[in-house]
Amino acid sequence: MAKKSVRKASKARPFWERGYQSHGYWQGKERLGTVQLGERSQWDGIYRWQAGSRAGEAKTLAEAKRAVEETVLSLASQLPLFGDPAGD
Q: Helix H segments across the chain?
């Protein structure tokens, strides 16, 4: 009798997706953060990012993406302030 391979269900890894004048950071169907550019004719060269309740600005796209990724990681690792972590 052959053994059936059972795959371990793992969380989908977050990924970047390019959009119209923006980049989205997704995990499955949930958007974790964004990096947006200004209007094409009025763009001031600043990338504006947002992840959760935090937002900021960066000079390069790479810096803005890194800020979103770090913010998502820090928000995921923090314990909730008013929640019940034990579930009792």
A: 61-77
